[in-house]
Amino acid sequence: MINVRAELGKAWHPVPGALWDYLDERGYVSEVADGRETIEYLIREARQVIAAGQSAMPQTPGNEVARQFAGAAASARIDALSAIFAAWAHHDLEVQRFRDRILPDGLLAWDEAAPWILAQRAATAPGGDADAYLLEAFARSRPGAPRPFTTLWYVADGQERAVSVDARLPLGDLAELADKLCDRYRWRPSGAVMFVLTGVVPEVFVYTGSASIRGGTLPVTTRVTMTLDPALTPEQVAGIYARLRTQTHPGPAPRPLSVKHYRLAQHTGPRLRFGLNEPSAITRPGRRPRPDPDGLVRTITPITGWTWTTLRHAWNDHYGTQPTADGKTWRYNASPNFIRDAKHALTRLLAPGWEWQASAQARR
Description:
Layout: H1 4-8, H2 17-25, H3 28-33, H4 39-54, H5 63-67, H6 72-90, H7 93-102, H8 110-123, H9 130-140, E1 149-156, E2 159-166, H10 170-185, H11 189-198, E3 207-212, E4 223-228, H12 234-246, H13 259-268, E5 272-277, E6 297-302, H14 308-319, H15 335-350
Antiparallel strand pairs: 1-2, 3-4, 5-6
Helix pairs in contact: 7-10, 10-11, 13-15
């Protein structure tokens, strides 16, 4: 039996992993390995796959993200769904009515869409200043009334962009139509807008990832949210989450605390008062405090009725005999070490330093 990958490597060195997965999953590799087909046949099929990929529609931002996690079959599934959904959407009555009313001369070219949106936005504002017009409309709106503007997403220069538009005018109708298409076909808002204007097929996304980053005293309540296609495998989901989690921290992800330090935070935290300040706001004499990972300075002092000494004694009474792996215990004989460890544990617990990176706002 021939080494199919080695033979294929004579045409592509190295053989791209996604290409190999596609050929293997479709049975081409086994046909050559079993002698039913020749290596030349496999090379021809591989070249056709590459040619098809190179002739794909223009890419919108973030489309390449899931390609890193999805194998060739999963990627082909996305392409199939994208083509089918776009064909259905072309016949959607709301899409046809909008195009007939707003684009009587036909669809725009991809590069014409962004300038058209901005020109339409300026044309609807007295004096051409759309931002000032929308702010004035918002100021005139009654409390509790629907917002007079909405957000329209589109693509320009390979980047997603967003502008506020009058919800009562054609661009507002376009934003509303795009929202419906996104919900129906799992498209990005920018992709749906560009589809309506240009007819370019949007890719369905198999996941979205975002984070709710908390500042101040509660960065520990930061959360990563994922919306997933059930067709993803557990391994693909793990890979997606690993990428998102990595991008919520500018450096190495914070290591978890030890059980001892979590218990120390549990013991002292409810009995301490937390102050939060910008470094520039600290004016007291002496050595300037070092900011925590989020750039803020936390001052930690016992609440009324407690001191660091009484906190240490209470800790020793409750945890002082807890053994450690090296034969020692959790007991503290000196307040400075206790204060240092307690503050360190609380800071690491409450302010781990999560910071959402723009590229992590990924969809596919």
